[in-house]
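Appendix B, example 12.
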Amino acid sequence: MSFIRSCEAEGGVRFTNPVLDVLLLSMAVHSHTPEHSLESIARRLGIDLDKRHTALGDAFITAQIFSRLLPRLRERGILTLGQAIDACRAVLTANRGM
C-alpha cells in the first residue's frame, strides 16, 4: 500500500477504501508462528506456490490465503470487515513496540 499511496498525487487520485493485509491477518490468527511471509503462510495453509512472483499468481495465492484464514478468523469472533481491520490494527500496534 505504501507504493500505491506514493503514486496518489502523481495520478491525481486518493485511495480511501478499506484495506486488509493477509500478512497481518495471519499474525492475528497465528500469533504463535514467527514466519508470516506470503510463502510461509501459503505453505502453512497448504497452498501451491507455482505461480509466485507474477501479478496474477501472487493475487491468486493471496486470495487463497484469505479464503483459508476466514474460518480461523471466525473462530476468534472476527466476523465483519470492521473487526478484521481492527485485528490488523491491533497487530500493527502490538508490533510497534518490538
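The radius of gyration is 15 Å. The longest helix spans residues 55-75.
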